[in-house]
Amino acid sequence: MREGERQKQRVLYVISCGSPVAQLVPALVTEAQDANWNVCVITTPQGTKFLDIPLLEQMTGYPVRSQ
To answer: 43 has which bridge partners?
Structure first.
């Protein structure tokens, strides 16, 4: 496998919890995507109160897992 192909397959799992700091997750997703990472978001059930789930799903192309 060539280096470019391997780089396209890098996945970053962002794990968030119930904290106002979770509102920064979209910015983290953008930064990671700019660095050629595929990003998936996982959050605790309480964390769903602090995240814009539809936005993150649109940004990443993956469902946000919380259970």
So the answer is: 16
Domain assignment present for residue 66? The answer is no
DSSP assignment of 1-57 equals --HHHHHHT-EEEEEE-SSGGGGGHHHHHHHHHHTT-EEEEEE-TGGGGTS-HHHHH
CA gap 64, 61 in Å, rounded:
9
For 9-18, how does the pLDDT look when each residue is reduced to its tens digit (9 = 90+)? 799 999 999 9
Q: pTM to 2 decimals?
A: 0.84
CA geometry: angle 65, 44, 25, nearest 5 deg:
75
Per the structure, the complete domain to which residue 56 belongs is given by: 3-60
